[in-house]
Design goal:
8-stranded antiparallel barrel; about 240 residues; signal; OMP-like; mainly beta; Outer membrane immunogenic protein; Porin
């Protein structure tokens, strides 16, 4: 009888295993969510702030007592905003960007004179600036290394004023020229990125003049023309929000 019992148990175990193997598996397979694909394509806007170092050269061009050139180096901070568009294909990114902001400058130069109580002050006022640049870059996942360049302008006034009451000065304003540089930008999320950037600005040369209104060193009404060359070097950090 014991042998019969063992045989019955053995046959039942085999039958149960076979039946279990034929039943459908109701356990769901794990679902793997693909990582989001980062893209630089789209419109964006943002804010920036940084430091500017200016290089100003002033030269008399038509017979002034001190022909120069004389250099001075005001510096300061600036802040503003940017608006642009990027298009990414493979790992390459191209785009266009516009900046506008305000540059605050401090510093001036002084030119001495043969007369102890007379000298000339060289100043560059703060002002609004802007640029429109093209960008080209290479993306390494969420990081973008880029170069940029284009048109730039600055609305500050450069003046060469004198303490001699016999002269009245007319300065220069609204410099225009070019800018070039580069930077690195990093996507924190698909819509938010941070960047660090260096730009060099060259605004060429512009003229101003001092008119004799009462000095016996030259005829009344005579104009001493001067030429101001202006360059900026800037470093800044920025934050961008990508709309789509």
């Amino acid at each position: 009888m014991s042998k019969s019992l063992v045989a019955i148990v053995f046959i039942s175990a085999i039958s149960g295993s076979a039946l279990a193997a034929d039943l459908p598996n109701t356990k769901e397979a794990p679902v793997f969510t693909p990582a989001p694909v980062l893209s630089w394509t789209g419109f964006y806007a943002g804010l920036n702030a940084g430091y500017v170092a200016a290089d100003v050269d002033v030269r008399d061009v038509n017979g002034g007592v001190t022909p120069g050139p004389f250099s001075y180096h005001p510096d300061g901070g600036f802040g503003g905003g940017q608006l642009g568009y990027n298009y990414q294909f493979n790992q390459f990114v191209v785009g266009i960007e516009g900046d506008v902001g305000y540059i605050g400058l401090q510093g001036k130069g002084i030119i001495g004179s043969a007369a102890a109580d007379h000298h000339q002050d060289l100043t560059l006022d703060s002002g609004v600036y802007g640029d429109i640049t093209g960008r080209v870059g290479y993306a390494f996942g969420p990081a973008l290394i880029y170069a940029k360049g284009g048109y730039a302008w600055f609305g500050g006034s450069a003046e060469q004023t004198t303490t001699n009451p016999g002269y009245v000065t007319t300065g220069t304003s609204t410099f225009s020229g070019w800018t070039a540089g580069g930077g690195v930008e990093y996507l924190i999320t698909q819509n938010i990125s941070v960047k660090a950037e260096y730009l060099h600005f060259d605004f060429g040369s512009k003229g101003g003049y001092q008119t004799n209104v009462g000095d016996d060193s030259s005829p009344i009404g005579y104009e001493f023309w001067n030429e101001t060359s202006l360059r900026f070097d800037t470093v800044k950090v920025g934050l961008n929000y990508r709309f789509w």
